[in-house]
Amino acid sequence: MTSKTILERHPIVILALLTIIMLFPYFNYWSVSIMEARNFITAREMFLDDNWLLTTMNGAPRYEKPPFPTWMSAVFGSIFGINSTFAMRIPTAIMLFLVGVFTHNFTLRFINKEHALINALIAITSFYVIGITVEAPWDIYTHGFMLASIYFLYSAFNQFKTSYIIYAILFWALSVLSKGPVGLFALFLPFSMAYFFTYRFSKKKLVQALLVLVAGSTLGAIWFIYVRMADPDTFHEITSRETQNWSSYNVKPFYYYWSFFIQSGMWTIPAFVGLLYPYMKSRVENLKAYKLTLLWTIFSVVLLSCIPEKKSRYLMPVLIPLALNTGFYIQYLIKNFKPKSTLFDKIIVNLHFGIFCLAALSSTVGGIILYRKQPDLSLTLIIVGVMVFTTIGVALLDSIRKRNVKSMFVCSILFYVSVMCFLPTVLAGSSKQKDFIQHVNATKAIKGKPEKHVFFLDYISPELMWYCERIVPQVEIKNHTYILPDLEQFGLLVDLEENMNMKEWSKKYHIEKQETYDINIPSSHRSKHRYLTHYYLFTKK
Question: Would the pTM count as exceeding 0.90?
């Protein structure tokens, strides 16, 4: 069986394997992000306290985000360990895989199997698609499900089936249950605009789109309606605060997203070329499909730019149509790159793939530098990694010499996946990582403290709260004065020790500082104060 046949017959298997290889080594290595911690804490309390609908974080109502991603985390946590970071991260890996699957399937609606797999591989290896999987769990869910909904709706446009509409409605509802109307605004609306300008809407297609929009939104809104009725005051307070943030928090200028194609990471150069319509229009096999993906990308960027609040991770949905668009240029190069190709194409191919070739062939030097800086790392793993990278580099260099773009593409994917696999595997054995794990385990010891009650004074980071593995209430404040709990003994977590009223409190309590918890990665230049907290034991005199 040829490699081409394998790629065409087993694309889903390939996507699954690459997802596992890229992400699973990170799951026990990468420190928990603030967004992850909030999700994981809510999932833990959801399971332990049976708060499946009126969700909480550290015992307080948590309605800022819809619950579906948290439901998924809670389910996997209940199976593999409710305090397991690895278990909680499995659903996001599934979502990355689904993004690849539906990118592949969407492409099959207008182009061949080879092109479909190329687009899927570009999508799952784009920088911020990977980054968002770890940084902010809700985003990969809402956009992944909305992509699935768009795929089934697009399928119904081309060949109507009732099942397509049902699936489109269900995935739409899951998108809403993951992060409200974000997927509608960032993916569906720009897709609809692009489709209108490319193919136009017949009355039948318009009715189908409206049916999916209304039915999916209604089904997805059930949780919001329930919480609004069950806890109206808290729900109104939270939604008002969240709505205000869209216009007053992290406000950036309109042009903030204009360098969006850089967020595709390793695909930055071909992604930029793929956006050049005058150059591409005579080089694509399906011009209308290319116009659709191009306009979808542009409209998505423009709509996101209209929102005052901007963050780099909000660009993640743009990378989906951008991957579809970039695939047109890669596919063109695969079929048409020859010795007599234009100078422009030669420069792009040699520059883009040459960077990966140079990086792969430089792995020996990189391995030596890494080992000299951290001699406690596994020399065997470093040697194996260098051998793998060097082999890929040689194969890539040979492909460049032979002008075989398909082979170049495959080698660059293998290089990227190998880096994602080997780097955390090697670094997991470093003294820094071992020290970090010790600090995390020390923080987890808070759960086993002999004193029954533990509180925090002003602030405790969600990351540290996750590692505490227990609910830690905040000390009550009245008239700018701390009201300490009237207990014989309790623990107190303090982030800023200068805020403690030691003179006054020591009249009533014996106060003993027991521990300082620090979940910063040791020797990191990006240490954060909010990762540091002090533990005091208060015993009534």
Answer: yes
